[in-house]
Amino acid sequence: MKKYLLLFFAFSSLFAQKKTIDQRVDSVLALMNLDEKVGQLVQYTGGFDTGTRTASPKQGQIELIRSGKLGSLLNIFGAQQTRKVQKIAVEESRLKIPMLFGLDVIHGFRTTFPVPIAEASSWDPKLVEKSARMQAIEASSAGIHWTFNPMVDIARDPRWGRIVEGSGEDPFLGSVMAASRVKGYQGDDLAAANSIAACAKHFAAYGAAEGGRDYNTVELTERTLREVYLRPFKSALDAGAATFMVSFNEIGGVPSSANPFLLKKILRDEWKFDGFVVSDWNSIGELVPHGIAKDLKEAARLGINTGVDIDMEANAYHRHLADLVNENKVSIRDLDESVRRVLKIKFRLGLFDDPYKYCSADREKKTIRNEEMIKATREAAKRSAVLLKNENHLLPLKKDLKRIAVIGPLANSKVDPLGPWNQQGDSADVVTVVEGIKNKINGKAEIIYSKGCTIDGKSKNGFNDAVAAAEKSEIVILCLGESLTMSGEARSRASLDLPGVQNELAELLQKTGKPIIAVLMNGRPLTINYLAENIPAILETWFLGNESGNAIADILFGDYNPSGKLPVTFPKSVGQVPLYYNHKNTGRPNNPAHQMYTTSYTDFTNAPLYPFGFGLSYTTFEYSNLSLSKNKISKEESIIASIDVKNTGDLEGEEIVQLYIRDLVGSVTRPVKELKDFKKIYLKPGELKHLEFVISPDKLKFYDINMNFTVEPGDFKLFIGTNSVDLKEAAFSVLE
Length: 736
Ligand code: NOJ
Hints:
The chain has 736 residues and is of the alpha/beta class. It folds into three domains: 2-364, Glycoside hydrolase, family 3, N-terminal domain (TIM Barrel, Alpha-Beta Barrel), CATH 3.20.20.300; 377-576, Glycoside hydrolase family 3 C-terminal domain (Rossmann fold, 3-Layer(aba) Sandwich); 621-734, Immunoglobulins (Immunoglobulin-like), CATH 2.60.40. Helix content is 29%, strand content 19%. The protein has 22 helices and 28 strands. A hairpin with a 5-residue loop joins strand 27 (714-721) and strand 28 (727-734). Helix 18 (433-441) crosses helix 22. The longest helix is centred in the first third of the chain and has 17 residues, at 125-141. 1-deoxynojirimycin is lined by residues 74, 104, 148, 201, 280-281, 489.
């Protein structure tokens, strides 16, 4: 029996095997005083020293831990550092309850993986799960118990900077990705030393902010909330997500930190979630400026009574919760319930059995950026890029080129490929495109690098040098996009154009007549119309992390055939936003031949630049023989849809076969199509695969006029194809 456990733990641990976690939680709860209970619901951030790149508790926090008044810290990491802090909790506090260390491990801890929207472009659930697993293994070795991820917010508005943190616009793809990430972080066993608790965030509809401005108001019907925005949360929960984080926004007048419809009715009553809910950073405090609480005390009362278990950084529970209980404004029963949920996760993580299990400096040393991590991030990076254009098979490049110009502000950037949620990533570990190409070419060609311009500056002083580099070369690789600080939290943009003078640089280089391949790095869809019309090849890479340049070189030189597809629509103009594939038909559907009096613009098209699900390969795929096992089914029956997909090109490759359904007439209107399934398949040249998809009743259900989730009889269309526009079509009916 370890010495840091109190007698009562020793006693209860003797029988721990026989006792359930709930019983163990109750036995701890029974010993806690009011301050200690409140302490479990308080979370503060440690301080980060940018010089030493280390984190440590801020002044006063150690004393709070010692007195049992602080149960959780965020932004404290490192095996030694967390051990030091944990030691105070389990050796010096009265009840020796272990601390919980949380961190935003969004796309990596030290090894930086592709940003989430990039990984979603892989449409590869196993890959995404593996990536999350690796992140968990690395972060847990550095003392982290809990990540504030996955971010599962559906985003239909690319102006919103946080679109980069999620999986795009579609609820089905978003749900698949949400489940993969939860499984990856939590592994098969949450109590394993290399598993970390996941946190589905931001609950809910944060991505629907008006005008794409971060933190802004959300107006949403319950139907759209449930059918679109909540689905990935439910999927995360079904995959076992241990925790949820509320969002900053209000929905229809009710901020999420005080929204009983979301937190009580849906999350607890309907979904039976038994993990804990954490606020977002000061989101309880923000109930005051929201105008729903008159002061912090009232905010604390609203937060806890609505079911926000942990207060991150608002100082509301720490200051006011005990008083609120004493004044009978918060019931001890509700307080106990919140404490129970927090203790339960600490038990499930195994922290009561061994509070130091995440604090091994030896494991940390062996794990951080080990070879397996680097291999995994390169693999993820290759599979996350999307080929948007490839005229006349310009790509893949031949390896016998003699002179290659690599141009642009992102061509040799060591920082931007880390992406906006770079955690402890180091720019020294980033392989740039210039470096990746050099690694690939291995001295056999001359690489001429020219920056051309900065990402968002106005100066064109570098243009001549860039043109000279292009003129000397056989081919130009032009790396354009956004900086890592242009997307992410609080980074909304009103323009979706390439910033600065980058477009002008592209125009100038195009005039040299050299073949150009545009490599994009960005955190959101961009209105790259000039590139789409004039540059023969475009590769969307988002931000691919540490192995960015190597992965891009793998693709450019054909060592990997790109297979990604867009998880989000690329508009042609910011004025079209929100533009998403699963929109409604309206009473006056858009008709490009007759814009007037149909839902359209008088001065612009409705068409996207690149539709949802779009992405090319170096090979081609032919779809044929779409057939259905039946054309008429009852409400309880399933249909099997089958299709043949053949690789008709000369290279092996992967295709993401997408299945969409449209319900033609309902008691409420239905989207023009909805993604219901997909399969990623690998085909050798000439190979044909016969695929089958099961359309079970749950794929046809929706919230009817009375908000019942049901299948309505009637006619349906089913589509299968390579993206949300190029589709084969079949029809079936559901009988009364
Ligand atoms: C605020 C962000 O909205 C949230 O996503 C993040 O987890 C917290 N800060 C903690 O860093």
